[in-house]
Amino acid sequence: MSLVDRVNARARGGAKTAERASEAVTLEEFGYLLGQSTGLGHVGGPAYKTRAGTTVGVSRALGITSWYSGVRYLTESLAGLPVGVYRDTPTGTQLRASPKWLLIPDVEMPLFGLVKSFVMALLHRGNAYAWKIRDPIGRVIGLRYLHPDRVRVGQATDGTKIFQIDNGETGWTRREVLHIPGLSYDGVLGLDPIRYHAENLGTVAAADEYAGRHFGQGTHVQAYLSVPQVLSETQANDLKANWEAFHRGLANAHEFGVLGGGATYNTITLDPQQQQLLESRQFGVLEVARMLRVQPHKLYDLNRATYNSMEQLSIDAATDSVRPWVECIEAYVNFDADLLPRGNYLSFNLDGLMRGDAKSRAEYYHYAISDGWMSRDEPRMRENLPYKPGLDTFLVPQNMSLQMPDGSIRPINEPTKPSGGDLP
């Protein structure tokens, strides 16, 4: 057993429980085992059997509509953010030229796809990996995404991370592999979210499956006609046809019915069991929102959202849901000296997600320009408007003044009196 195998064996200690050989194997478990035996296990990844009777893996989690919606929101929100490389200088932050790996990470994948893959891996495996593509002189010119199920992580005695790809014998290091772990105990390997949320996801999945079987196998007529005598099949069909002929369709809307022979018309509503089932499915949406740390309205649950609060909820989603993942990716990219020169750092721009409606943005820009800390051209750039010459100067209110060292007050726009003589 290699070093990586031993380390991972310790990391996964107690994760797998012995199952009785006589237990039935579900279709998803059989598909996973079949994929492992054919070398395709990295496609679906491991699956976990839950107490609810369901088996949860990546494919089953994505089959839950709320999970799929939340994952899609996070991946597309991060991948669509503007990104740039900056450097802090004595005169302020300076935008630098983006390295080649940031402009075109891979011939098979643009930056949008690479970031989406990173977030997908972090949400479902807790770790994201990329292979560093170098030019002949050793500079990193690209990043090729590595599926997390292809990589095993170990640690040498000196603390160096060792990466084993596709069960190969070669142990790679951080020089060849970029590793972005998610939530972690030891900082070496991120925790698997599917594994730790398997029971909760299994409960949500079980409620979905039960609802599908309940409505697929149950009888859910809205109303029925009842007569005291026994009817033959022909008599029952005639009675139904006569009733529909006089009461079905728009032309017969709001008509009253006439029943004879002791017949009665009965309506059916959802019973308490059915209503509880709907409430359970609604609770599942909130459970997924807690797992992903996403606002429920981003999962299209608008029960607690109002028109007045929607703007603030969207800002909260950007700060509480998107920004933590942004900072995670930025931290590990900026920490890697192979990707950026010392003093430079990668930064995603969250302004587009956090800005409010047109009125709020107009007021924000108005005060920024009036107070003199933003030029008139900066709002145009943020709103994707074309450049206009002459708007890159700062305006200063005329009523502002400065208190001089001697205690005197001087208007801020008044020129300073030169030493050694009076102003002309």
What would you say about this model in short?
With 424 residues, the protein is α+β, with helices and mostly antiparallel strands. The chain has 15 helices and 14 strands.
What features would you describe in this structure?
With 424 residues, this protein is an alpha+beta fold. Helix content is 40%, strand content 15%. It has helices at 3-11, 27-37, 41-44, 58-62, 65-79, 100-103, 111-124, 193-196, 198-217, 233-247, 272-292, 310-335, 351-354, 358-370, 377-382, and strands at residues 48-49, 55-56, 83-89, 92-96, 127-134, 140-146, 151-155, 161-165, 177-181, 223-226, 264-267, 344-348, 401-403, 409-411. The chain has a three-stranded antiparallel beta sheet with strand order 4-3-12. A hairpin with a 2-residue loop joins strand 3 (83-89) and strand 4 (92-96). The radius of gyration is 32 Å and the shape is flat. The protein starts with a helix and ends in a 13-residue tail after the last strand. The relative contact order is 0.10.
* SSE arrangement, N to C: HHHEEHHEEHHEEEEEHHEHEHHEHHHEE
The share of residues in extended strands comes to: 15-25%
Please give the alpha-carbon distance between the first and last residues. 89 Å
> Which consecutive residue ranges, at least 5 long each, have pLDDT under 50?
10-29, 31-43
Strand order of the largest sheet: 4-3-12
Helical element count? Answer: 15
Provide the fold topology.
Layout: H1 3-11, H2 27-37, H3 41-44, E1 48-49, E2 55-56, H4 58-62, H5 65-79, E3 83-89, E4 92-96, H6 100-103, H7 111-124, E5 127-134, E6 140-146, E7 151-155, E8 161-165, E9 177-181, H8 193-196, H9 198-217, E10 223-226, H10 233-247, E11 264-267, H11 272-292, H12 310-335, E12 344-348, H13 351-354, H14 358-370, H15 377-382, E13 401-403, E14 409-411
Antiparallel strand pairs: 1-2, 3-4, 3-12, 5-6, 5-9, 7-8, 10-11, 13-14
